[in-house]
Amino acid sequence: MLRGGQVDVAIIQASQVSRSGDFTHWTTSETPGLFGPGFAVDLAAGARRVIAMMLHSRDDGSPNIVPVCSNPIDGVGFVDLIVTDIAVINVTASGLELLEVAAGWRADDVIALTGAQLAVSPNLREIAFNLSDLKSPRLKTSEKVFASGLHALSDLPDGAIVMIDGFAGPGGTPHYLLTSLRDHGAKNLTIISNTAGIARVVNFGTPPGKQAIDHTILIDNQQVKKAIASYPVSPSASRPTAFELAYRRGEVELELVPQGTLAERLRAGGAGVAAFYTPTGVGTLISEGKETRVIDGKEYVLEEALRADFCIIRGHKADTLGNVVYKGTSRNFNSVMAPSADITVVEVDELVEPGKLDPEAIITPGIYVNRIVIRPSDFSPYE
């Protein structure tokens, strides 16, 4: 969650903070000669905003806020705000700025106890402890619930990268959101999916006389410019997919990815891992133009993580916080895609209040889900 950029604010306990926002965690200070950064390294590197909580001075009176940290640094330039027992200090590109002082303290007193140069804010005030006086927006759980798929995707722009769940058959495919995306009409999309739409030609579980809704509806609507997929072709040469035909006409591009590599590239994108080495595809067309490396006598190819602007997935149940439960094998790529997009939209059959889902059954935590849509009861995944 941290490496993937899902955390807004992290609060760390620091023993030293420099004028540029470098910090040393308290464990390193308390265990001389033993470097012990602890979880603070992950917290600082992954959160969008880092607040350091600390004593302003050591027991001997020496400052904990210094020009340069004297102990090994656990994070370089990560601290945005310092909160001590006597002051609140902002860390800016130009240096440190005193924002608040504790009751009974003056700016000059705090400056005298600070090892680094400290500017005073023109709006300096006393620290407020009554949190009810602070005006800040509160997140309402209902803000994640959207009235329709079209509403949930209304801000998806032309040229977006979109992850779409699904395997070979209809299970796990966000059919309702696919039709919403088609009706929305965004063009020049790059889609990331296991297939580029083969449910319509393989007919797994499809009632006689019906066609499954899959990526085909986006291809036919000329919304896709590129697919990143593992299995974009039909298993039958006599029944090509819409994507195959468009590719042969030169209307779409394709980046072919082995299925296991696709799953790992998705997982890495959600975990904030930029790239990884894998033996899959070495010496084949898959590895052409990619960096390779020999590790323990075996050759590996470097594969980059995948992230998207939007992700549309299919769940069975969700609560209003966005915690999702899947149904059987419909889970497939949902759980690795959800953390890997800037905006993840899930369609579900049922929406419940927080606490109504079995915690052991929740696969995708709500922190990864931005928008929820209930699939209409009269909606059919077939045309």
CATH superfamily of the largest domain: Glutaconate Coenzyme A-transferase
CATH class of the largest domain equals Alpha Beta
Which bin fits the share of residues in helices?
Answer: 10-25%
Amount of beta strand: 25-35%
Give the overall shape, derived from the CA principal axes. elongated
How many discrete structural domains?
A: 2
State the separation between the terminal residues, measured CA to CA.
38 Å
Number of helices: 10
How confident is the prediction overall: mean pLDDT? 92
Give me the CATH architecture of the largest domain, please.
Answer: 3-Layer(aba) Sandwich
Structural class: alpha/beta
| CATH topology name of the largest domain | Glutaconate Coenzyme A-transferase
Pick out the low-confidence regions.
Answer: none
Task: Describe it.
- The structure is a single chain.
- The chain is of the alpha/beta class and 383 residues long.
- The chain has two domains: 9-130, 3-Layer(aba) Sandwich (Glutaconate Coenzyme A-transferase), CATH 3.40.1080.10; 143-276 and 306-374, 3-Layer(aba) Sandwich (Glutaconate Coenzyme A-transferase), CATH 3.40.1080.10.
- Helix content is 17%, strand content 28%.
- β15 (292-295) and β16 (298-304) form a beta hairpin.
Which characteristics define this entry?
single chain; 383 residues; alpha/beta; Glutaconate Coenzyme A-transferase; 8-stranded mixed β-sheet; 8-stranded parallel β-sheet; 22 strands; 28% strand; elongated
Question: What would a concise description of this structure say?
Answer:
By secondary structure, the protein is of the alpha/beta class. The chain is built from ten helices and 22 strands.
